[in-house]
Amino acid sequence: MTATRPIDLRSDTVTRPSPAMRRAMAEAEVGDDVLDGDPTTRRLEQRVAELLGKEDALFFPSGTQANQTGIALLTRPGTELVLEANAHLVHYELAGVAANWGVQIRPVTTPDGLLTGDLVRGALRPASPHVPRVGAVAVENTHNAAGGKVMPAAVMAGIVAAAEQGDVRVHLDGARLWNAALALGVPLASLARGAATVMVSFSKGLGCPVGSCLAFAAPDRALAWEIRKRLGGGMRQSGILAAAALYALDCNLSRLAEDHANAKLLADRLSDCAAVRPSDPESNIVMLDLLRAGDTADAVIPKLTRAGVLVVPFGARRLRAVTHLDVSRPDVERAAGVISRVLSG
To answer: Hey, is 161 helix, strand or coil?
Structure first.
């Protein structure tokens, strides 16, 4: 058992607000956002809309609720949602697309987690009285299950063009879009261009305790507000949470480069370990494939936990490690040594 604190690589959602973020939350100007608006929340919504190149945005307690609202805005019951087969909306939102909106998932298998314009065209069925119509296309950037895979702006543009040809709109699940923009060195708006709805999360890489935003065209605000209310997402003095997000945009956005560098460092340090094959990270996620016949995620994770490194399973023989603002370079060095020692033992 390690005598030092565990190194928590399970997710970038495990971060805790810093003292400065807590002060910003405590000092936030607030109002009743359901009745007549919260001024701090509105400032956040306007700032996010501007960053994403959209006309408006709405603050949500969770990314899942914001994603679901985006799908509701773009689809009708009895239609299909085209998206990559391992997308978050497929596996990690409890079939909400079907349960909430009566929309069928149309998963598209890809070799690397990235949809393309050609793949979308192939999934858009010709009009027929015998098959469901496509209601919308959904894209994820970065792609969590693909190891934080980054979708370049040109690929996104191809998807948007294909969707427009099929007369459908695009939803962007950009929970880690901040990471994608930094990795590519481009403005956020360039990665959101053409998407009708865009979700971004504050509680992952930006280190906030709660919160996401959904951006859209101005006429969609009233219906998005109603859908959020129906889902139980109306919050009163939400400025306390929005203040954390505004602080994060000011102070935590640029430092994401450290997380990306630490992910590469972890992969590099484990590249010589014969028991594991690390992915080549494009952002802050490293997938670790177990190579020895007797190693499984269920068997290995308890051993790593006892040694002081926390990761999550991402398949029977795959682990996921995520770097974040509460993990330093020395932490990563130590984690790599622990993983190598435990897996080689």
So the answer is: helix
**Pairing mode, if any, of strands 276-278 and 212-216?**
unpaired
For the chain, the maximum distance between any two Cα atoms, rounded to a whole number of angstroms, is: 66
Give the pLDDT band of residue 4 (cuts 50, 70, 90): confident
Please state the φ and ψ torsions of residue 285, each to the nearest 5 degrees.
Answer: -120, 130
What local confidence, expressed as pLDDT, does residue 3 receive? Answer: 57
- What's the CATH class of domain 7-15+255-344? alpha beta
- CA-CA distance, 293 to 313, in Å (whole number)? 17
**Dist CA 212 CA 283 (whole Å):** 20
Question: Helix, strand or coil for residue 17?
Answer: coil
The answer to whether the CB of 17 falls within 8 A of the CB of 208 is yes
Rounded to whole angstroms, the Cα distance separating 66 from 6 reads: 32
204 DSSP assignment: S
pTM of the model as a whole: 0.96
Rg (CA), the chain: 21
Q: Which of 138, 106, 124, 197 is nearest to 167 (CA)?
A: 124
Is the distance from CB of 123 to CB of 105 less than 8 angstroms? no
* Tens digit of each residue's pLDDT (9 = 90 or more) over 124-142: 988 889 999 999 999 999 9
- Give the domain ranges of the chain: 7-15+255-344, 31-251
Q: Which amino acid is at 255?
A: R
User: Helix, strand, or coil here: 93?
Assistant: coil
Surface-to-core class of residue 170, CB atoms within 10 Å of its CB (0-12 exposed, 13-18 middle, 19+ buried)? buried
In words, the CATH class of domain 31-251 is alpha beta
Tokens standing for residue 99: 């349960």
Task: Spell out the SS3 assignment of 206-272.
Answer: CCCCCCEEEEECHHHHHHHHHHHHHCCCCCCCCHHHHHHHHHHHHHCCCCHHHHHHHHHHHHHHHCC
Q: If you average pLDDT over every residue of the chain, what do you get?
A: 97
